[in-house]
What does this fold into?
Amino acid sequence: MANSIKTNITQPTTDKYIKTFDVTDDPVVYSIQRVSPYSFETIIVGIFDTKESALCRLNRMMDSPHADEEFKIMVHNLRTLKQEEDLN
It folds into this structure.
């Protein structure tokens, strides 16, 4: 006979939703990272609150580019300690 699984598990009445990592509510920041063409190390050039400010800095850096220089624009979601602890 197969093992039976108890499916009638009651949830606490305080939980009305499943706690998940929902990135749509978190603030978004942008960072520009430079990859060295010699050592391939990544250096954070700056962190910006809007994509326009990140592109403005990138445009300024491209006024005098170096050979084989590589830049990455990364998008990050800011999370607080309370938000992370609530997922436990």
